[in-house]
Design a protein that fits this description.
Blueprint: H1 3-9, H2 19-42, H3 48-67, H4 69-86, H5 98-114, H6 117-141, H7 147-223, H8 229-257, H9 273-282, E1 287-291, H10 300-320, E2 326-333, E3 336-343, H11 359-369, E4 373-378, E5 384-391
Parallel strand pairs: 1-2
Antiparallel strand pairs: 2-3, 3-5, 4-5
Helix pairs in contact: 2-3, 2-5, 3-4, 3-5, 4-5, 4-6, 5-6, 5-7, 6-7, 7-8, 9-10, 10-11
């Protein structure tokens, strides 16, 4: 079978049936089969074994259409033709019995509620067209049939049922769409409120604390008598780092308060790595840095991700390996950019993975957003190594960043 036709036949309905739907349509299918088998056998002259098989197929196709609309419609039309072929043309109504009209109407309503109107049209045209063709052929051979009136009545009833199902189905789909949009809007409002709450907490707690640090470091040279130039320079460095942290904090607060979530504040790139390294050196850490120029410059998300990895790695080295020498390497290797931060054993060496924080997870997520990878772990000398690799022209997945 052609794969396209196979997918079409086995395609699920546009909306899955709920428990109440299954109960209701199960009752309809059972009634069609239970009434159709004896009526077609006793009234329309259909051979009993055929009446049993085709009656079950006619009723069961209604439930089958709930699972696969195309397949259910196909089985139903075949069963309808089988009943018409096996029935006696002289025993009206023919070629559509009353049970066949009711069953086809039920199927068309189900398709209108849970599938698509195009399938309704195809099913109705196939059933009515096939019945009319069969009636025409038989009428040419014998004149004891009254197929014309039967076809008019059957076509009118089933067309009305199809139209009713299509209209009700369309209204229900519009209601479900409106409900879905309302739920999305409620979720958006709730998320905006949560973002605002987080922004307020960050502003009131973190930003306030950083502002106090900046103020105290800036005013230290004026408040403390006898402060030598070396100590004053240290306080000035702390003030500068506090200013940088506050600037980034304002950018994050803008993202949280902005519903679009677009970070408009300038973000650090690879050109900011020397400043980051110098600031870490000023804190008393010995750093050997080899920063090769990366040409052409990679996309901004790639540069930001590498900067944040370097920032977190240096922070971990300062916190967990005090007094250790640190090596920072940045270079391009083929189509990849390699960033490597390694520290030797310190006075309180502790791998970042054991510190209980979220630094490694954050680095991994940042690199994943730019199709990069992260490797980390202790080296043979008792130190710790963090190695990030990113494609030079990495595709940026904004929803993961």
């Amino acid at each position: 079978m052609n794969p396209t036709w196979s997918r079409a036949i086995w395609s699920p309905p546009a909306r899955a049936l709920g428990r109440a739907d299954w109960i209701a349509w199960g009752i309809v299918a059972t009634a069609v089969a239970a009434v159709g088998i004896p009526v077609h056998s006793a009234v329309h002259g259909l051979w009993v074994p055929f009446a049993l098989i085709l009656g079950i197929a006619q009723g069961g196709s209604i439930l089958l259409a709930a699972l696969s609309p195309w397949l259910g419609a196909l089985v139903h039309v075949v069963a309808l033709f089988g009943i018409a072929l096996g029935s006696a043309p002289s025993l009206a109504p023919w070629p559509l019995s009353v049970i066949s009209m009711i069953a086809l109407s039920a199927l068309l309503v189900l398709l209108g509620l849970h599938a698509h109107w195009r399938l309704q049209v195809v099913t109705w045209v196939a059933a009515m067209g096939g019945a009319a063709l069969l009636a025409g052929v038989i009428t040419l051979q014998r004149d004891d049939t009254d197929a014309g009136n039967d076809l008019i009545v059957g076509a009118s009833i089933t067309a009305l049922a199809a139209l009713t199902g299509a209209i009700v189905g369309l209204l229900l789909r519009q209601v479900r769409t409106a409900q879905h949009e309302t739920e999305l809007e409620r979720a958006r409002v709730a998320w905006a409120a949560e973002r605002g709450r987080i922004a307020r907490e960050m502003h009131d707690v973190v930003a306030h604390g950083m502002s106090v640090v900046h103020m105290r470091a800036t005013s230290a040279r004026y408040r403390i008598e006898g402060l030598d130039e070396r100590a004053a320079a240290e306080f000035d460095g702390i003030a500068e780092q506090a200013r940088d942290a506050l600037r980034e904090m304002r950018g994050l607060l803008g993202v949280l308060r902005d519903e679009d979530g677009v970070l408009t504040a300038p973000q650090p790139d690879l050109d900011a790595l020397p400043s980051l390294i110098e600031a870490t050196r000023a804190a008393g850490t010995t750093i050997d840095a080899t920063l090769d120029p990366v040409e052409p410059a990679p996309p901004a998300p790639v540069q930001l991700a590498l900067y944040r990895v370097a920032q977190e790695s240096l922070s971990n080295a300062v916190r967990h390996a005090r007094g250790a020498d640190v090596t920072v390497t940045l270079r391009r290797t083929g189509d990849e950019i390699l960033l490597r931060v390694a520290n030797g054993p310190g006075t309180a060496a502790l791998p970042p993975s054991e510190s209980g924080g979220h630094g490694l997870r954050g680095m991994r997520e940042r690199l994943t957003s730019v199709s990069g990878s992260l490797a980390h772990g202790p080296d043979e000398n008792g130190g710790y190594v963090v190695e990030a690799r990113v494609p030079h022209a990495a595709p940026y997945r904004e929803e993961q960043a």
